[in-house]
Each structure stands twice: as C-alpha cells, then as structure tokens.
Amino acid sequence: MLNHGEHPRRIASTGRGQGSLLAGLLVFLALAGAPLLGLAQDAPGQTAGVAYRDIPAVGSRNIVWVIAQLHLLLAGFVLGVPIFAWICEIVGWKTGEKRYDKLAKEFTKLLTSSYATTALFGGILLFMLIGFYPKLMAYLGDIFFPSFVVYCILFLLETATLYLYWYGWDAMQEGSKKTLHLFLGFLLNVFAFFIMIVPNSWATFQASPVVIAEGSDLARAWAATWNPTWWPVNIHRLIANVVLGGYICGAYAGIRYLSAKTAEEREHYDWMGYVGNFIGVFGLLPLPFAGYWLMREIYQYNQQMGITLMGGFLSWLFILQAMLIGVLFLGSNYYFWMGITHRIPGSEVKYRRPIMAMLVILLLCLGVWMTPHSLVASLEEARKMGGTHHPLLGVFGVMSAKMTVANLMILVTFMSFIMYWRAGKEETAGWAKVAKSIMGGVLGVAAIVVIVLGVWGYFVPAIVRINYFSVAQVLIVLFVMLTITPLTALLLRSAKTTTEMVWGRMPPRAGYALVLNAVMVILLMTLMGYARSSSRVHWHIYGVMRDSSQYAYSPALGYAAALMSLNTFLFCMLVAFIFWVATMGEKAKAGGGGGKG
Amino acid sequence: MKGGSLLKPAILIVGIYLFLKFALPLFTAPLPASLIFLYVALTATGIVIFATLSGQSTEAFFGPITRFLSGEGQAGAMKMARLLVLVLFPLLVGWQTYSSTAPSEQPPAENRTIHPAPPGEFVGLSNPIPNTPENVMAGKGLYAAFCSPCHGGNFDGKGPASRGFNPPPANFSDPTTIAMLQESYLFWRIKKGGVGLSIEGMPWKSAMPRWEVELKDEQIWKIIMGEYDGAHQKPRTWE
Q1: Is A312–B45 a contact, with Cβ atoms under 8 angstroms apart?
Q2: What are the tens digits of pLDDT across the range A478-526?
Q3: A461–B179 C-beta distance less than 8 A
Q4: Cα radius of gyration (chain A)
Q5: Which residues of chain B make contact with A374, given a CB cutoff of 8 A?
Q6: Who's near B102: CB < 8 A, 6+ residues apart?
Q7: CA A206, chain centre distance (Å)
Q8: Does a structural domain hold residue B17?
Q9: Do both B131 and B30 map to the same domain?
Q10: Within this chain, do residues B80 and B136 fall inside the same structural domain, yes or no?
C-alpha cells in the first residue's frame, strides 16, 4: 500500500503485477462471456416492446438472483464496516490507545478493497436488469428518476470521502488534522446511510408500492419512496450490515490468527477476532426486534404477503432462519466462553457451572424456536397426533413462543458478554454486593416477566400480543441491558485485576468458530433475501405490475436453498480473494522486504 | 471433564431419546421422528460445545475416542472392539443411507401448509355484519347446523363426524388456530372450502365443503362471528 510510505517502488511493482493479472482476468471473462450474451434472446411471443430477455439454460432469473445477492452482501459489508471502523478510531483517539487506531485502519483497508467490487457488481446488476427486464426497469426509471440522480451524487460524495479517509489516514494523525479525519469518517457514514436507503426505496416499492397518478415527477418519486416497508427495511438492513461487517471482520481475523507466525500476530488477530465477534453480537442483539417490526409492517400492509411469509409456503424458511440464528448465537457465545477459559488462566472451574446453565437455556430456547407449527410427519405419525399440529408441542410453533425464546436468548448472550467482561477481576467497591444483587434481581425478574408475557400471549387477542406484549418483552430486555451495562462499568472502574487477560492463546477451533459465524450470517442474509423477494410471488411490483415471464412462479424451497448455498460460497470466495489481494503487499513486506516482491 | 467424560454424554443422549420416544407419549401424542431427531441433535451439539470449551475438557472428551480409533497400544478385546467399530460404523451409515433413499410403500413425510395465503380478492375484507348479540346467536345457530357435526359443539374439532377425517377438523378453541387469523381469512376458507386451497395447502387433503354453494355471504359472516364467540377467541385485527 502506497500510503504506508515504505518501499513504494516494490509495492508499485507488486501493484502492477496484480493490475495486469486483473486486467487479464477481465479480458478473459469478457471473451468467455461474449458468446453467452450473444445467446440472450427475446422471450418467445414478444415482438414490439420487448418485456423480457433470457439466456437459455442458465435463465435470466438465476443470473439476476446471483448478481443481486452478491451485490447486496458486498454492499452490506461496505456500508456496515465504516460504522465500527469510525467508532474504533474515535475510541483510539479518546483513549490514546494506538491499537484501536490500527484496528480501525485495518477495517478500513478491508472496506477500501471491497468498495470497487461492490460498485462493479452494482453496475453488472444494473445492466442485467435493464437487459432482462426492460419493461419493469422503464417503469421503475419513470417513477424513480429523481432518486437515481440523488443516488449518483451520493455515490460520488461517498467515493471522494472514502479516498480522503483512507489515503489521508497517516497524514491526518495529529491535532486538528485528526479531528478533520474523524469528521471525514462521520461524513462517510452519513453518505453510506443514504446510499443504503435510496435503493432500499426501489426494492421496498416493489413489495409495498405507493403510486400516485398526479403530481410532478418529484412528488411521485417521493410518494413511492415513502412506502410502508421502507423504514422497517432501512433499520433492519442498517443493523444487519453491522452484524455482517462484524462477523466478516471476525472471520478475517480468525483466518489471520490461524495462519499467524509470530506471537505478536497471534495476539493482534486474537484481539481483532474478539472485537469482530463483539461487534457481530452487538448488532445481533437488537436485530430480531427490527426483524419483528419489519414482519409486522409487511403483515399489516398486506395479509396475503404476511401469511405467505409467516404461515404459507415460505414459512419453512423461518425454521431454517431459527436454525441459522441459533447457530450464530451458539457460535458467538462459544467464542466468548472459550475466551474466558483460554485467555484468563485458571478461570475454567469458576465459570463452568454458569456456562453450562447458559448453554442449557440457549439450547432449550433454540429447541422451541426451531419447532414448527405444522410438523413434518409421516401419515402414521400424523394420524397418531391427530393432524400435523402436536397437541402439546404445537404451542411452540407460534409467535408468542418464538418471541419469548428470542428475548431469552438475547438476555443469555448479553449475560455471557457481561461474564466475560467481569472475568479475572475482583470488585472492590463497598457497594459491590448490593449492585450485584440488584443486577441479579433485575435479570431474574426480567426473565420471569418475559416468560409470563409469552404464556399470557396465548390468551389475549392477537393485537394485544403484537402491540403490547411483544413490545413490552423487547423493552424489558433493553431495560436489562441499559441497567446492567453501566452498573458493571461502574463496578469495574474500581475493580482489582486478579488474572491478566492473555491474548493469543485461543485454540484453532476459536478461529474456525469465527469463520462459522460469518458463514452463518451470510447464509442468513441469502435466506432472508430470498424470502423478501419471493413474498411478492408472481408480481414484479406487488399488485401493480404482474410478472408475465416464464419465471412467474416461486422456485421450490430445495432449489432456492441450492442457490442460497451457491451465493454464500461465491461470496466467501470473492471476499477471500479481495482480502488476499488487499493483504498481499503487507505480507510481502512482513516477509523480509525483498526477495520475491 | 474428568473420567467418564464419554459415559455421561452417552447417557444423556440416550436418556433424552428414551424420554421423547417413550415417556412423553404416556402423557400426550407421540412425537414425529423429525422432532425427536431435532431435539437429540441439539443435545449432541450442546455436549460437543461444552466438552470443547477448554483444552483439558477437549482432551478428556476426544482423547479416548482418538486413542481408541487410532489403535495405539491396543490388544485383545480392545483391538477386536476397534475393528468391529471400523467395520460396523460404515455399514450402519450405508444402511441408514439406503433405508432413507430406497423406494418404499410408505408415503413420504408430509409437509402440508395448514394456513396458506388467501387469494387477493379476499384480502382486506371486513365483516359487514354488525357484531350484535342477535347476529352472534344467529351465527351460532348456523354453526350448529352446518359446522358442528365436524368442528364440534364445543368448537374443539371433535364433532361426531370428526373421527372419519384425516387430517381432523380444525380445533377453534386452540389459541394457535383462528385467533391467529383475520376474519376475511375464515370467510375465504368457509366460502371456497378445501378445493379452494392453494397447492401448498394440499386441497386434496381437506374435506371442507365449498359452502358458497349452500350459504349466502351474510350467513358465512355470521358463522364467523359465532365461531369466534363460541371458541372464546378474537380475530386478528390491526386496531
């Protein structure tokens, strides 16, 4: 990297090598892809005003599916990382701890290297959409043209800010320059946020359109943008991007940790993995709330769409979702627990019982979450049960139970973090006992109230459960977090460290756990991306423009799962390649500053 | 983990399986194999997680397995046991694979969607009949005449004709059935019956008559009011 100011010639030469490699790859892809594009043909029966084009054998829908998913995943990463990179930089600036600044820079390096690929996939997606769905794109272009202009301006601003932020890092380290750099980081996040919500309006318009017949172009675009699911999706994606970014950075750290050769590297990447996991968990805790709000808005917007998702043929996706979220919760907690037993010598025995209790609660909750309402059963089994609803366990299949266990899992994960935070320290404050009793009391009462509300939810009208009980459960969990976090921070301010935390001692499986978490969150996003898109069923724009192509059907869940897995695999490969390229120069430098270059 | 690290998990897994398979059905209906598999898999996951938290516990858990499978220093019965495992385990996997893929006269496990999405023309309808005691009573009367033979006088799906159906008629007093749905959904299901279901709802598996042939819309709306009142449930609303 040139901004390091060292070995510019060698690194430039490395860059040239990579550049020619990339250029060669692009030419190869263009040559290989040309005949394929030549196969693109108008859909049969279309003469004047082509509505669809297709590529035989592969299928236009599959191509758009893969490209759109890859673009969204990359975009999620690129928009999520600046948030915590900037926060890390602020922490480093406020505390004077250089390692935070170094970490922020490392996060930004990953961001910078992914940025161009994200834009590239955005461009490919646009060309594909215009080519395959000209009628739909003409309609969307007609409505959203003003926001297309806004989007282009935002993209220019974001790119310029990112260049300044990244290339100015070393130059803007001291005094007022650092303040300016932090302001650039702030601007980067502001532009990133708007870059996310503008295209969200196009996608959410397709699901919940607001079309006004009269008014200026601006008024029509404005009305279409403020559609019922726009803000729920904005909030959900914002949080999900942080989760995705955190876990991917964690996976990056995990892989670097596994391949680390020196003790210093091991320490750094162990710590980076911890931060990545923490960021992922931090986002994961409020994510179910945002998801619940989104689903509620969808259901309220249209009963048909709500039932298709939550009770209809897509409802099985939510069982898969429960499994993936469950693995994510288990994986994140596992990493925390391993952190306690490996980084804090001698703590294994002390924390064994609490860890076991937390694990049992998590598994019980996950068991409930994964229990479907309609069970998969043979004819004989269904006959014995009196249908596909089990008379006893069938009650686990509805939202009252799911919300309750989701909240309990969030509480357990939060307490897992608190336990990690307090491990190896001894509170010395005189009021420590009282504080700990209050914390225990708050946690216990909160858990009981969440369960009571969950059970009570079966005996009240649905609207009472949705509007009051579920909201109360969420508020209770938030209250616990907002009470226990500052109390713990206050307690630890005067605490005595009994055992120093030792970084770089985690076993290899900790690195694999970080990779697993990243894969789970990618799978989760591909799954829910499919759910969101498929809930429109045979409509391009729900209730406004019908899909009349040969693909106007929902693919079978098995087929969709195969595509999701393919997308996850391709994304992982893409990210691995980008990170490999991004760290090539650094590795060469660490390797002795010469030789092979 | 200390000695017996493998014994305790084995007992736990077997215990959970036996409880789900044999003990729980003493109090309620038997669980389908898919659910038992899910709960046992979760138990196994928990065991592996707990066993691999620290270096010591990992060694205590996996050490004996690794040593047994590697065959280091084994002789006599242990050696025979290892060979037996190495032969039997692949055979077991093969048998399991064969039995799960081989053609069978048993129908495949069912994956029916009980509440598929309603057609667009039924979305957003509201009950046009005022919710008065008279209308509710009229609805209950119609229910008694047309619905109760299957869905039961107590709205519990246990009418005199219910035993003849598989799947059985819906139990309206169960809080996970009509309480989750809007009135317009019930209107669609009653009016169009089983044949009106979408494919994922398996219309061929519902004996619900198409009541639009015999009842007016107004009567169907009254039945819906009567059903909710009789089952002590409230429809899903957004206000």
Answers
A1: no
A2: 999 999 999 999 999 888 888 888 999 999 999 999 999 999 999 999 9
A3: yes
A4: 26
A5: 111-114
A6: none
A7: 22
A8: yes
A9: no
A10: no
